[in-house]
């Protein structure tokens, strides 16, 4: 039997990183997806949005997220990011080592995890 006395809350929030409160989650067929995403030094993800709740844990490196309105946040190794919902943004590795993210998505079964901006 394990003894779980050493625990740390990494994130507890009712809002995304831009202070938009989460709305009630009315999900008929919930689906949880967990991705490991790597971003090389100097690389960026495409401009995209999420239509579901997702939380990113920065396992390694430093990630800068910028919206299409130039709102910006930087998240460091060991920190969590409650992603914005329904707003276009992209993540960039501006650090000197690869970024490794573990991202947890919660939404309606079949919902796209990310929608790229056309």
Task: Provide a short characterization of the protein structure.
With 118 residues, the protein is mostly beta strands. It has strands spanning 30-39, 48-49, 53-60, 62-67, 72-76, 80-82, 89-93, 99-108, 115-116.
Describe the protein in words.
The protein is mainly β and 118 residues long. It has a domain at 35-111: Jelly Rolls, CATH 2.60.120.10. It has no helices and nine strands. It has strands at 30-39, 48-49, 53-60, 62-67, 72-76, 80-82, 89-93, 99-108, 115-116. The strands form three sheets. Strands 1-8-3-6 form a four-stranded antiparallel β-sheet, with no helix packed on it. A three-stranded antiparallel β-sheet has the order 5-4-7, with no helix packed on it. The model has no long low-confidence stretch (mean pLDDT 94).
Helix content: under 10%
Q: End-to-end distance, in Å? A: 52 Å
Model regions low in confidence, pLDDT < 50 over at least 5 residues:
none
CATH class division of the domain at 35-111? Mainly Beta
CATH topology of the domain at 35-111: Jelly Rolls
* CATH architecture descriptor text of the domain at 35-111: Sandwich
How many β strands by DSSP? 9
Cross-sheet strand order for the largest sheet:
1-8-3-6
**Class by SSE composition:** mainly beta
The major β-sheet equals: 4 strands, antiparallel
Write out the CATH superfamily name of the domain at 35-111: Jelly Rolls
Principal-axis shape? globular
- Rg, alpha carbons: 15 Å
The share of residues in extended strands comes to 35-45%
Mean pLDDT: 94
- Count of DSSP H/I helices: 0
Q: What are the secondary-structure elements, in order, as H or E?
A: EEEEEEEEE
């Amino acid at each position: 039997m394990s003894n779980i006395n050493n625990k740390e809350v990494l994130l507890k929030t009712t809002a995304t990183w831009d202070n938009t409160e989460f709305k009630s989650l009315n999900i008929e067929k919930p689906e949880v997806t967990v991705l490991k995403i790597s971003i090389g030094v100097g690389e960026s993800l495409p401009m995209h949005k999420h239509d579901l709740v997702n939380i990113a844990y920065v396992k390694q490196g430093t990630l800068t997220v910028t919206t299409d309105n130039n709102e910006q946040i930087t998240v460091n190794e060991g920190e969590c990011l409650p992603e914005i919902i329904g707003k276009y943004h992209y993540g960039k590795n501006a650090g000197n080592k690869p970024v490794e993210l573990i991202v947890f998505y919660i939404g309606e079964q079949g919902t796209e995890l990310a929608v790229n901006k056309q």
